[in-house]
Amino acid sequence: MTMQKWIMSGLFFVACALALALMFTLPGKEEVAEEAKPTMPEVTLDAAAAEATLKASCITCHGDQLQGGAGPALQQVGGHMDTNALFSVITKGRKGMPAFKDQLKPDEIANLALYLSEKK
């Protein structure tokens, strides 16, 4: 019977240690919210750079005239998505679209989002 108490005490200690470890390593609400909605840096639109980014990263799925293909048409995307929403989608990806946060710099993504937001 005393052996059972030692085992139960040991399991309780391990559970408490695990709970403490998780409490200090899991992200908090603020961190999760920040990751869920990335903050767009302020940039001035550079249309030439945005078009170069489009050609390098987007036309494979969205077409050379943004007419769509594997991905949706983007010719009028600014009519139903604002700059921040576009920045978020390009950064994090959505449905079949991959995230570009590891391929493009935040400034490049912001410039592209500004460019696409003018497509109405």
UniProtKB/TrEMBL annotation:
InterPro entries: Cyt_c-like_dom, Cyt_c-like_dom_sf, Cyt_c_BACSU-c550-type, Cytochrome_c550/c551-like
Domain Cytochrome c, first and last residues per copy: 45-120
GO terms under cellular component: membrane
Positions bound to heme c: 58, 61-62, 97
UniProt keyword annotations, A-Z: Electron transport, Heme, Iron, Metal-binding, Transport
Name this polypeptide is given: Cytochrome c550
Native source organism of the sequence: Paenibacillus uliginis N3/975
Superkingdom to which the source organism belongs: Bacteria
PTM text: Binds 1 heme c group covalently per subunit.
One matching Pfam family: Cytochrome_CBB3
Listed PROSITE patterns: CYTC, PROKAR_LIPOPROTEIN
